[in-house]
Amino acid sequence: MNDIKEVIRNFILGLGVDDVGFASIDDYRSPRTPSIESLFPGARSMIVMAFRELSACESPSPQLAMNSRLDLMEFTRSVCYRVARYVETQLGCPAVTVPVSYPMDFTTPQKIGFAEVSLRHAAISAGLGAFGLHNLVVHPKFGTRVIFTAILTKLELASDPALEKNPCTRCGLCVQACPAGALNDEGKTDMLKCLGNSQPYGMRANIGFWCRFCDATPEEQKAMLQSPEYLSLYHAGFIGYQYFCFRCLAACPIGRSVRQENKLQLST
What we know:
- There is one protein chain.
- By secondary structure, the chain is α+β, with helices and mostly antiparallel strands.
- It contains 11 helices and 6 strands.
- It folds into 2 domains: about 1-155, no CATH class; about 175-265, no CATH class.
- It is globular and about 70 Å long.
């Protein structure tokens, strides 16, 4: 199976993916998501892909930073489909794509905020990183500036070796950079604090706006529908959830070092 892994790895890297790892379903451990068997009966392995965030995550403009994330997510969806199609058509094995985030299941309170597959745990199982001080995966080369997708397959593929050393330096810059204090408790993320700051025009803001709208006078309602707040909510509604904060990603010194390494290689 190592030969098959290398064939798949080379195909994926040829698509422009920054890194790829493999994990046996037996090695995947996620405490709050469904079993892989319940999602894709007969699945035996995961192909996990890492995509580096561009430097736009450092931009003071949340619009430019979010645009870069949208570009990246569109690229990941295209790659996921192409890889799954390759596994099915060229290797003759069923495959299922796992998205970066949405769509999500909101049918029960227990499922809200949790994906079907934890890509953080999948990445760790595939040897692509380890949990950092901020509860995100730290890749040994890209730091926190990375997002993951995965393919579930029925191929019998062994897990890649786990990292021998956690790349997180515990410098604390990510914790200090969080304006909401969502990372103050080590190993945990306060999601309400994080989302309240990073998605100011998300679901909670939307509900709050319309509750105030219902209690307002006709003149107040007219003014509300012409306000920057409503325009921002409308904008987010047709584009989708928008992040206005990437500070924990931008602060990670490991991710910043990649550009310097590439610059040195070009100069030699």
